[in-house]
Amino acid sequence: MPTVIIHSKGEAYTGEVKEDTNLVVRAGIKQFPFPHLAYKCGMGKCGTCASRILAGAEHLPPPNWKEKKQLGDKIDEGFRLVCQLWIKHDIELRQEKVTEPQA
Q: What is d(CA 102, CA 35) in angstroms, rounded to the nearest whole number?
């Protein structure tokens, strides 16, 4: 099972998830990473779940069109939308506000 490390508010929270898990879905049903993961829409529209990937980015698929629209150049700095990722390998991330919601 993949290990997930989330850095939030000066703390690091670690947990395991089943392979092929979406962290926003898990948080929505109040399982890890709830309450440490900030999110809203879960559809790639709001940018609330934007996170800098600190480790494990090499195992993620390329950014999709929603991430490109919402994050722009921040993708080059290692940012992704967690709601658009299905975790299959260990990952470490830190949430940082990077955008205003797109219209």
A: 25
